[in-house]
Structure formats: C-alpha cells, structure tokens
Known about the structure:
Blueprint: H1 11-25, H2 35-56, H3 61-67, H4 73-84, E1 103-111, E2 115-122, E3 132-139, E4 142-148, E5 151-152
Antiparallel strand pairs: 1-2, 2-3, 3-4, 4-5
Amino acid sequence: MNALPVFLPSPALLRRLALLLLLALVASPPARAGDAEDATAAVNAFYADYLAQLDKDPRNGPEWLAKSPQLTREFKAAYARALKGQMDADPILCAQDTEPKGVRVTETKEISADAGVLKARWVNPGFSKEALYVHVRKTSAQWQIQRINDFGGPVPASARKYLPERGG
C-alpha cells in the first residue's frame, strides 16, 4: 500500500500565513483623533437637513433623499425598495406622524477610520425614549449613513450588537 506524501510547510511559509491572518484580523484601520467628531457632525447635519426638508415639503422627501450625498448607495436602494411597498413608519426617523424638533447624536458606540456606530436621541422632550443607532461609513473622506437601526445597507459583524432585538 502506497502512503500519500505529507506536505509540511516551511517555517517561512508559516510566518507569512500568520502575518496574512493578522492583517486580515485588523482590516479596519484605527480611528484618527477627529473621526468621532466628524461622523457626529455628519449625522447631525443630515438630520437637520432632512427635518428642514420635511418642514418645507414632506412630499419631496423621497426625491431629496435620492440625491443626498449624506447617504450611501445601499441605504438609498433600501429606501427605494421600501417605497414600493407600504411603510408603517419613516425609517429615517423610526417614527410616524411626528412633529420632530430634532435628532442629535448623544454617544459614539464604535468608531474606526472608515466605519462607526453612533447613538442618537430625539430632541423633543418626552417624545420617544427609543435610541436611533446610526451606522456610518467613510467613503472618499466623507462620512455617510449606511444604516439606521435595522433599515439600510449591510452591517459589519462587529456592529450587529446595535441592531434592535426582534421579539419572539
């Protein structure tokens, strides 16, 4: 009976594989000093612009969102698909029939050089105790909204803990 040859990797190959594995594990670059502030400013500006647009003419909301540079393509595509069906609530405000006074980022949950999760709350006193978890992604030096709670584009595994829990 012939035995199959056994392949034993060289120490140099093992070092290279270990280095590749280490690089894959730390794929997201570390955050720089201003990333949390920049992402917060981008999200706050988006909500201010969106609410101003709703005040001006709510019917133009979908068209305005389609042109917004503050949203990723994936978020815009999810919004366009949602418009074809029936939405129970505004997925950006995670509410319906509101007279919102504003939404502000209150906490940075996670941030790296190219992605993050920010926690935002309503400015209206007593309106809603629910937090909005806004997932952001940096594309070409601009922070964009990728997802709000469970609506929008894909969520990295590290940020899934911020998605709302589903009831049984």
